[in-house]
Amino acid sequence: MSKHNEQIEPGEQRKQGWRVEINGLVQGVGFRPFIFRLAKQHGLKGNVMNSPLGAVLELWGDVTELESFLKALQKTLPAVAHIDQIKTHADNAQEEPVDFTIRTSETHTDVNTRLPLDLSLCRQCRQEVLDPENHRHGYAFISCEDCGPRFSILQQLPFDRHHTAMNDFPLCKACQQEYDNPDDRRFYSQTISCPECGPTLYFTDPQGQQLAKNQEAITLCCEKLRAGKIIALKGIGGFQLLADAANAQTVNLLRQRKHRPAKAFALMVRDTAEAAKLCHLSTAAKQLLESPATPIILARQKENTVGISTVVAPGLRYWGVMLPASALHLLIINQFAGPLIATSGNLSGEPLILDNEEALANLGEIADYFLMHNRTITHMMDDPVAFVDEQGQQHWLRHGRGTAPLTTHLDDRWKTTVAHGGLWKNSFAILDKQRLVLSQHFGDIDHRQVLHRRHNELKSYLRLIRINTDNTDSLGREYIDNHPELSEIASQNADSPPHHLAHAASVILSCELQNKAPILCLCWDGLGYGPEQQLRGAEAFLYRGGADFQHSAGLYPIRLLGTDAARHCWRVAFSMGQELDVDIDIPVTRNELQTLKQQWRKQFNTADVSSMGRLFDGLSYLLSGCPENSYEAEAALRLESLAAELSTNIEGFQLKPITQEYLEIDWRPLFNSILDQLKKGSPKPALAYAFHQQLAELVLMLARHWQIKQVAAAGGVFHNQLLVKLCQQRLQENGIQFYLPRMIPAGDGGLSWGQAALHILQSGRSMDYVSRSTRSN
Questions:
Q1: For residue range 493-541, what is the model confidence (pLDDT) as tens digits?
Q2: How many angstroms separate the most distant Cα atoms in the chain?
Q3: I want to staple 122 with a disulfide (CB 3.0 to 4.6 A). Which of 24, 146, 282, 306 is the partner?
Q4: Strands of 406-419's sheet, edge to edge?
Q5: Would strands 663-666 and 654-657 be described as parallel, antiparallel, or unpaired?
Q6: Residue-range definition of the domain harbouring residue 70
Q7: Tell me, what DSSP letter sits at residue 301?
Q8: What is the number of domains present in the chain?
């Protein structure tokens, strides 16, 4: 939200001096050149400079032109820039300047600006790099004031060349002339470079022996890709692994070497037209695909596509597609002339690799060759992932290059608080002054190296925005207790927000629903701890404003066998069958089956889990044949992909009042009905679709029961595109608004932001959260 704090009283004087402070995303977006040119157009004198506060302008000129300048500034911003707040002050003590200039940046302790985002290749740079007549033709590191690396190379604020990794590359004479020329589109561009003075690209073998440089390196890289080789590429925010997406043998080899047996790989294609040949893309999806973030877009595959191996996304009907994020990516995909796998440069579960020597040491058993450069990566940035629903709304699964740090401007000022998120899909969030900052995706921090990378990145963020950890609160007590190394940056009085309330708060705050209660909040995922450490994954709350969440419904628990039941879907299906005294066909011997049944009945090494995610696992085993989750949510994704819109009727969920305030959601009638339909020979794709329909019907039933006209949903289950579509349709048919987190991942990637959001909603008030659960033993 932009604010204009007008503190000017023109009076009779026609010429005045103004000081203007602009806060927002105004660094690394060509803002100073924009201000310079705009001031010249309005005949103003003075200067502009970067500051830890954002951008600071000292203006002198006719009052009418000053006012006109401020209006034009807000109407004609650079495409990526965003203004949170403008403050203007009269400053008539200054002498009339001679001209308008760009001043050396101001540095002091207070930082209150948005951190700059990496920007994908703009259209003009794309044209130049492909133009044989241009002196930057074929130059892999071309950039301008509108595009190029930003946060991934940032060392400190303000965003100036000497505060970035580009400080290692002094400008040549030609680049300096462009940099100094107000009429040049690279005027004052901090990342400007050319083949004479910029980073060097080189192609090596796994021992680091150089085989080619610059454009020749790209040519050799493409030759090796066509020959079925795997290439480790140093990208914008870390290393990536490239392979021919049409070569099944190469893809399977990559899976074997990367220890990634089934999880889908992302595809990089040349342009939107190529992406549209592979999958169904709406206008909104195409726009997001081409945006400065160039995220991976998850979109439904088209039938009979050619040029993509079936082992790229086994068992799924969605491709993850993205466009080239940099000139280096563009030059490779152009020469290769076909879709490429572009996946994270790491072993599965380990952190993204940033450094050349580290890559040679750790990726040598995966990659056949390396395409690297000598520009330092300061901040790890994996590719962001999103999908666009049929109504054109964006839904983010993770943030990274081009979208993180994600900053939300707040009206009120807050004490500095760090929210640490959860153990899986980890991110952190920093609440400070009038902003809430969400970090990039780190992954699962049960891996020691991921935790170490995440810990160092948090310290880097705190250093960038100059936060004194001696006066910082923390959210996520369990996370901190399990990781003593956080003691140096975590306060001792850390709070522990309930997992699902944090998810609910992420929708309330991101969609600005604080004053629109009552709202039904649904939190469906795999597992999260309740206030008494119960295992939950299917909760409903009635939100009545502030931090008043009343626990109103939950799923009848599933008694799971063993600690690894969440991985083995057949174990979940077995347990669900035992609830109905039905034996499900599972991959064990007769004696093993009897042992499992005794264990289940005697409740030996079992856990009662109320989880929608586990319900997906059990049904996926029955319908798609998925025996285990080799990666998180594999079973749910395969069940969603199996679903086909065929006519089949099944019984739905039942709501059982336990108290006047609490409902139990009984899944057993639905499960029993699916078993009956299977015996009758009903098509499994139809049953998978009917299950999704019944989930949407359940949402409607809950809303009707509580007579609620607004539903807010979060949790990893709502990354399911089919479920989102059916919920939108069913609720809107009945005049009910359906909300998902806006820009914040619905799953655990947004948990830290939700923890901070819950802290904001509380504002010193206690929460009404009494956990309820029932089970017949």
A1: 567 788 999 999 999 999 999 999 999 999 999 876 665 556 788 999 9
A2: 97
A3: 146
A4: 429-438, 406-419, 473-475
A5: antiparallel
A6: 4-102
A7: B
A8: 3
